[in-house]
Amino acid sequence: MNPFSFLKKTALWMSLLTPTLGVGQSKSLSQRLVQHNQQAVQEKVFVHLDRPLYLVGETIWFKTFCLDASLHTPLDMSKVAYLEVLDRDHNPVLQTKIALDGGKGFGSVFIPPFIASGQYSVRSYTHWMKNFSPDFYFETTISIVNPFSKPSLSSPSKPTLAYDLQLFPEGGNLVQGLESNVAFRAVGQDGKGIKFKGSIVNQQNDTVAHFEPLKFGIGTFSFTPKEGEAYRVLLYDAKRQWFTYTLPTVKTQGYVMQVKESTLALEVTVSAPTQTSASEVYLLAHTKSVPKVTEKKALTSGKATFTLPKNTLGDGITAITIFDANQKPVCERLYFKRPTQSLMLTAQTDKKQYNTREKINLELTSSLKSNTPTVADLSVSVFLADSLPTEDPLLIDTYLALTSDLKGTVESPSYYFINSGQEVDQALDNLMITHGWRRFNWEDIDKKAIYNYLPEHGGHFISGKVVHAQTGLPAPYVATYLAAPSKRPQLFVSRSDTAGRISYEVKHFFGPKEIIVQTNTQYDSTYRIEINSPFSDKISSYSLPPFAFDAGWKNHLLTRSINMQAQNAFLPKSALQTTTGETDTLAFYGVPDEKYFLDAFTRFPTVEEVLREYVPGVGVRKRRGKFYFLVFDKLQPSVFFEEDPLMLVDGVPVFDTDKIMAFDPLKIKKLEVISGLYYLGPMAFSGIVSFSTYKGDLAGFPLDPRALVQSYEGVQGKKTFYAPVYDTPEQLKSRTPDFRNLLFWAPQVITDAQGKQSLNFYSSDQPGTYKAVIQGITENGLAGSKTLTFEIKKSSL
Fold first, then answer.
1. What digits encode the pLDDT tens for the residues 430-439?
2. Is the same domain home to 693 and 601?
3. Which of 181, 531, 575, 593 lies most in the core, judged by the most C-beta atoms within 10 Å?
4. Into how many domains does the chain fold?
């Protein structure tokens, strides 16, 4: 199936949702946006991590949601998601791939002991998302602590008094003689907003504007730059020190916009100098790239006012863009409309306090705001709330509705949802101006899109390049073969394109494997193959907060470290096993026409005798001192193909028959034959002769020295989270220590038609305050989250 058919289907709703427009040029704005979206369907990934802080030796458990970026519904386009843990220098320290089914998947990553203490970013994306900016990737912060290495203790050194102050004119422009609403944001080196007083002074040192932040170092003020004036921005901090900054460039010509909100509508005013020759402007409002309002207005005395009823806008973030008479974007700002509908989750434990090793019952319900029950796909994590400082976990509802469509880091995003009132609404609007961002550039919207990465709808893509061994230049039209030796042979083929690029779509490719990539050395022996990393090498603008190792953590870390080591030591082997869910046990070529288990026959000392004695479907010939195989054409009985068949040993192509004939037949368990033409991708073979060893590991068969042999990690298998059960008195009195700080992890919890689900698990031997985080989404894209706490007290027994 063509992967791009999914893009066309997803684009259908865009054309249906396009607003009804009047005649004239303004219609093309929506058309341009819809056409762009039809080509560039956007995926949005969210990852629920089991907890915010880890020790080396622990495991990161996660649930991945891959959604349509415009509808937030699960998108069944990509079948693989990538997850990386990056250090402060953007170097990957952990990487993995997980399978997606219906836009959802889950997995785990073990944290090895060599990782240093610090803040790390976890990011996730799909193969298709690599075509776009890395700012579209999911990214969040975790803390990793290594108690086995000497920490760099925080010191009470004098703090650095340096702040990042940025000013953002509403709409993007400051124009001489026109009043603008200017938003600002000031943060310290920790990335957090600061309290300060600011002012704008002219070249005569007269103060023309004062400003102070409303929340998180963010606020707004009004300012009208005058012709011929030069300005400076001054910041006066809590330490009574002054800092000087530069005002954004003031233009002599241009447009400014101001948005004022009433109960039912937005009033958007566009202003330009009265001498501007343009007579009209256009407005386009779109919510998550879906056009909502398009309108044209004439400039009268340098002004045009648009009225946008709120009920015409979608929930969440709407971009309001102003275009000049030539339909070039000149102003833009964002507006946030609180969702009218969301997923409401409730969670309640049967008690507020438990003993160690006691059963805990957790009741979940999912409903709409109207208290109508709804089915939801949830993930649930229950972990010990350490006394160690951590970032608040990222929640799916605030991420999808707010932060995923804003540029930069949003401080305390939950503040805008938990609280309400005029101040919160103003702070939210200030946030829209200071974090404005689109998922596309208008300059690129009419360009023909070129995508280097297809959606992985059928399976993971392994890509590479074929080059001339001597010159290093790309080698076009060369047939290549990729195999992974195993008991179930797998073979993938690809012919290089004009740039020497090759790509293999590998299905049922799980876990760590050794891959062997080669050309047919009988014909193409002068080429070298290079395999690309499947992970993105792009870096986003995401920044990590600082990390300081506090000496006061020592006792807490020692306890958690001892508990972690004891827990790993007593972990049952079943907890380490992974499953693939793979039901297809056939080789890639399906059911063979002939199959021989050699132990069922008389054993002969050479492969030639084996074939001649009881494999009638394969003929052995010798020409010019070299052996050749010939396979019968089942469509023409008693007629051999003239060309060589595809010869395999544990799924690895062999192009020199003499090597097979010299191989010890006692190492061969099974021989299978395909009679007739066999088509694999762009290639056709005159039958197949497949040899299988007992362990599927080639059993010492000599590979061609020109073949590329390297380790490659496939999609990870499924591992089940282990938690002990204390149902019986014997289990309760077990002397096996239970020092879990992660009590429960369930990535697939589905509420029933009444919106209910019951979970139960057991407390561990660790007393303390535990936090349960529940997150999820409905099939129609409503997201929700819930957090609760309970206590575990030390047993008196």
1. 999 998 877 6
2. yes
3. 181
4. 2
Residues 517 and 601 in one domain: no
CA–CA distance, 34 with 20 (Å, rounded to integer): 13
Domain boundary among 704, 729, 755: 704
Distance CA 409, CA 413 (A): 9
Strand (E) or helix (H) holding 507: none
CA 16, 20, 22, 28 torsion-angle sign: negative
Residue 783 lies in a domain: no
Decide which of 674, 704, 734 is a domain's last residue. 704
Interacting residues of 570 by C-beta distance below 8 A, sequence separation 6+: 736, 737
Residue type, 467: V
DSSP letter (8 states) at residue 720: P
User: 218: phi > 0 → left, psi -120 to 50 → alpha, else beta; which?
Assistant: beta
| Dihedrals phi, psi of 290, to nearest 5 degrees | -95, 115
Claim to verify: residue 510 and residue 610 sit in the same structural domain:
no
- The winner for highest mean pLDDT among 381-390, 526-535, 727-736 is 526-535
Kindly tell me the burial class for residue 716, based on how many C-beta atoms sit within 10 Å of its own C-beta (0-12, 13-18, 19 or more): buried
On whether residue 632 sits in a domain, the answer given is yes
For 681-701, letters b (16+ CB in 10 Å) and e give eeeebbbbbbbbbeebebbeb
662 domain-assigned: yes
432: DSSP letter: H
Q: Is the pLDDT of residue 405 over 60?
A: yes
Whether residues 526 and 599 fall in one domain: no
Give the distance from CA 721 to its chain's centroid.
Answer: 22
SS3 content of the chain, % helix, strand, coil (to 5): 15, 40, 45
Distances (CA, A) of 456 to 434, 462, 659, 681: 36, 10, 37, 17
- What's 705's DSSP letter? T
Show the tokens assigned to 675.
């009679």
> Hey, what's the torsion of the CAs at 748, 134, 786, 218, to 10 degrees?
180
| Nearest residue to 169 (alpha-carbon basis) of 246, 226, 249, 231 | 249
| Domain ranges, residue 518 | 460-531
Per-residue pLDDT tens over the stretch 575-628: 777 777 665 567 888 899 999 999 999 899 999 999 999 888 898 988 888 998
What is the distance between the alpha carbons of residues 655 and 642, in angstroms, rounded to a whole number? Answer: 16
What pLDDT is stored for residue 153 in this prediction?
47
708 has pLDDT over 60: yes
**Residue in the structure block whose two tokens are 């206590």:** 791
Identify whether the C-beta of residue 283 lies closer than 8 Å to the C-beta of residue 276: no
**Whole-number pLDDT of residue 15:** 43
* pLDDT of the residue at 156: 46
- CA angle 501–11–750, rounded 5-degree value: 95
Is 405 contained in some domain?
no
Q: What is the pTM of this model?
A: 0.91
